[in-house]
Amino acid sequence: MGWGTLMAYLFVPDMLVGRAAEFVQLANARLASLISAPEVKDSDRVFAFPLIDVLRAFAAISVVVYHVIEFFEWKSYPVTGFLLWFRIGWMGVDLFFVISGFVIGLSAFRRLDRRGPRQARAEFVRHRLARIVPLHYLTCLFFVAFITPAIMFSNGFWAQIVSHALFVHNLIPEHHRAINNVNWTLGVEMQFYLLIFIGVVWLRRAKPWLILALGLSITWIWRSVAFAHIPANDPVGVDALFMAVTQLPGMLDEFTFGLLLARIVVAPRGQRLLAAIAPYAWIVVAMAGLVVWAILTVFWMAPAYWTSWKMVVLFRTLIGVGAAACVLATITIRSRILLLLTAPVRYLGTISYGIYLWHLLVILSLHRVPGMTPQLALPVVLAMTFVLAAVSWHYFERPILRRYAHAVPK
């Protein structure tokens, strides 16, 4: 029964006779649906990790606040305490990549186990295209129309359109952050999907240590070569080095950590391990917190970033370790009370893709307002971004997913 039946019971007295027990059951069921993850089959419940959306929300908000601080040159923003995190909120992207490695790997491995390679790949492509492409195209359209309309009259406009449509804009210096600056990450993400499409069978069966060794080796070699050939002595050099080391080979370590967590979850031994440590989840959370604290301490103690080989080549691997620790801690928690308390935050995680793609349009629009201060801009940016993300999710993204993909969060 749905809300219509429930309202009928409330407002039609004749229907209330003898229905008290049924009404209680209905109310309890509705309450349970509100505080739990999207409904899943019993066979799938072991693979449901709704608190991952808390991490998604945190990552998205971290990026948003970081960009407000940077674009509005918020010099008085706190430099101590928890709020200091948002000065390095760009690390939210690294958290996103580890989460993506885990979630995409888990989905691909389970499809492979149930459907076989051919059908698994077909479903994977359909779902990923339906999830990523529409909002990317929509936000690019809005960005060009309302933020950078002059680009439509430039000589390279159609090349920009093609590169962004094909998700290769991150590979071209002139296109890297030309339309909706933050979507360079979508190029990296889509290229990771291509890697999964090609290598899912091997990634499902290979020894975890071999996957880790290859992921780290490729990443460290790529970053080392980039560091050796691109001097970062000025802003132009820093930008060029940033673009080089954030290509897929340079971020492969973070995706690899997520993939290995997915391998743990799909393995019977890994499932038994997670079940065994579930009663001690808060110890795992505390340990993850210590790992993150140690990594951030290393960052703040470093005298420089882009001119240090250790920082450019190795530090993002440490970020990946910290992010993986957070994901591991999150998937060990099985608390219905925590699900209830985090329901609003989990909703933000559900719409986090929209938060990420819409927020820069809002920031750049407000940046044009004379006298706009960062203190005033921040709450407005958050509110407007949340609204845009919610609207696009409910009336654009989710309908497309329902039509072209098998399942969608409610």
TrEMBL record:
Domain Acyltransferase, first and last residues per copy: 52-392
Keywords in alphabetical order: Acyltransferase, Membrane, Transferase, Transmembrane, Transmembrane helix
Record's GO cellular component terms: membrane
KW Ribosomal protein (keyword) present: no
MF (Gene Ontology): acyltransferase activity, transferring groups other than amino-acyl groups
TM ranges: 47-69, 89-109, 129-153, 184-203, 210-228, 240-261, 273-301, 313-333, 345-364, 376-396
BP term (GO), one: polysaccharide biosynthetic process
Protein name per the record: Acyltransferase
Source species, domain of life: Bacteria
